Amino acid sequence: MYLIVIAWMYVVLMMSVAEATHSTGTLLGAVITFVLYGVGPVSLVVYLMRAPARRKAIKAREAAETATADPEAHRPDSFAPDAGGHAAGSVVPVAVDPSVAPVRKEP
Predict the structure, then answer these.
(1) Which one, of 14, 10, 8, lies nearest residue 30 by Cα?
(2) How wide is the angle at C-alpha 36 spanned by C-alphas 30 and 41, nearest 5°?
(3) Is residue 38 within 8 Å of 17, Cβ to Cβ?
(4) Separation of alpha carbons 35 and 25, rounded Å
(5) Sign (positive/negative) of CA torsion 2, 4, 10, 13?
(6) Between the N and C ends of the chain, which has fewer C-beta atoms within 10 Å?
(7) DSSP state of 102
(8) Helical ranges in 1-107 per DSSP H
C-alpha cells in the first residue's frame, strides 16, 4: 500500500514542479499544490491505514501491563472451578428461619 503513497507523492511533486516552472505559475502556487494535493491527503490516508496496527499495539500494551500487574490473573487454571461438588457460597450450613417460606405463595 505504501507503493501507492510513494507514487502519488511523485505525481504531486511533478505537479508542483510544473506549477513552479510554468510562465504563469508561482512558487506559492507550487507549495500550495504540494500541501493540498500531496501532504494533506497522504497523511490522512497513512493515518487511516495504520489504525489497525495502532489498535493492536494498544491491546498488546494493555495485555502486557495487566500481566505484569497480576501474573496470577491470566493463568488458565485459575479460572477452573474447584470441583468440590458443592454449591457456591457458604460451606457452613446456615440456619433457616422457619417463618420465611422457601417459595413465594400465590395470592
Answers:
(1) 14
(2) 135
(3) no
(4) 16
(5) negative
(6) C
(7) S
(8) 2-21, 27-34, 40-49, 51-69
Q: What one-letter code names the amino acid at 36? A: L
Length in residues, the chain: 107
pLDDT digits (tens, 9 = 90+) for 19-38: 999 888 889 999 999 999 99
Using a cut of 0.70, tell me whether the model's pTM lies above it.
no
Q: Which residues of 23-42 are buried (b: 16+ CB within 10 A; e: fewer)?
A: eeeeeeebeebbeebbeeeb
Cell 497513512, residue located: 46
Cell numbers at residue 96, please? 433457616
3-state secondary structure of 99: coil
State the cell numbers at 55: 489498535
38 contacts 8 by C-beta, under 8 angstroms = yes
